[in-house]
Amino acid sequence: MEFSCKDFKVGKCQGQKLVDGETMPLVLQPPEADKADIESLLLALKTNKDWFEQLIIKNSAVLLRGFDVKNAQDFNDIVEAFGWDDIRYVGPAPRTQVYKRVWTANEGPLSEFIYYHHEMVLIKEYPKKLLLFCEVPPPEGGQTPFVPSFRVTERMLEEFPEAVEEMDARGLKYTFTALSKNDTSSMRGRGWEDTFGTSDRAEAERRGKALGMDMEWLPHGGVKAILGPRSLTKVFDGRKGRRMWFNTVVGMHGKEFSSAFMADGTNLPEKVVKRCEEIIEEESIEFKWEKGDVLLFDNLALLHGRRPAKPPRRVLVATCK
């Protein structure tokens, strides 16, 4: 699909890369100085909704820059302009609803690196699209690096073909612990009531089951969620037959509140996990946030994370089907 839209012009940002012929992220700016207001942007998005959706699939990451997006209300208007259905976040990250469909991103300490992941990768229903809005850019660090998932699979198959195929065939299992109460001092400090949207244990179990989880209540009042078996890679329609590294093996393996292992309970090969961590970092793409930036991800195609930052940093998020 060639780029052709009178309502946007293509820009550049430091750090963007050409991956398999596509620019990531593709930067879209106002076509003229007097078209930078939020009303002009909303009209352009509504007018070119189908085209824009194809663009996200084609380039995986699209950055709207130079538009006058001021706050959560403006961002919510952008989210709703596309008409995509909302999907509630389920996972261990502490988050707070800000306005309608807009939430804070992970509220864990800015000093910590949030590891690369596809949003809600382990849940039966995961978002297809992820939208991020930079309300307050950090003075240092705090980038949202992302990784073309198919490149990880390609490189892992080059180096560990037998191990990758075996892990995919046998399947994986994961566990994560939801605490008894929210703890924003931890990146995985979301309490189970907030995670499942209820204070009733039986209802939490029912909702967990619907999401593909088995649950084990712990003596301290928290709950361990067990998920799996899950595949290592996935191929999604409309994405050139690319085999995505659709898992969270590196991010959950051997961590304080989580684990990853083979579906039969055996350990993952340490050498493979360690090398995968290196490959993911080598394939990462990042840019410096600017105030008002809106970043759209194809969640089926990209892993993303968060670099450590000096405060203040405020990036808001919306997840869509």
Topology:
Elements: E1 9-11, E2 17-19, E3 22-24, E4 26-29, H1 38-47, H2 49-59, E5 61-64, H3 72-82, E6 97-99, E7 102-104, E8 114-117, E9 129-136, E10 140-141, E11 146-148, H4 149-159, H5 161-170, E12 172-178, H6 192-196, H7 201-210, E13 213-217, E14 223-230, E15 234-235, E16 243-244, H8 249-252, E17 258-262, H9 270-282, E18 294-298, E19 302-306, E20 309-310, E21 314-320
Parallel strand pairs: 4-5
Antiparallel strand pairs: 1-4, 2-3, 5-18, 6-7, 7-21, 8-19, 9-18, 9-21, 10-20, 11-19, 12-14, 12-17, 13-14, 15-16
Helix pairs in contact: 1-3, 4-5, 4-9
Distance between the termini: 23 Å
Count, helices:
9
Fraction in helix: 25-40%
Strand order of the largest sheet: 1-4-5-18-9-21-7-6
Query: Which H/E pattern describes the elements?
Result: EEEEHHEHEEEEEEHHEHHEEEEHEHEEEE
Query: What fraction strand?
Result: 25-35%
User: Helices and strands: which structural class?
Assistant: alpha+beta
Q: Quick one: overall form?
A: globular
Mean pLDDT: 95
Largest sheet: 8 strands, mixed
Q: Which stretches are low in confidence, meaning pLDDT under 50 for 5 or more residues running? A: none
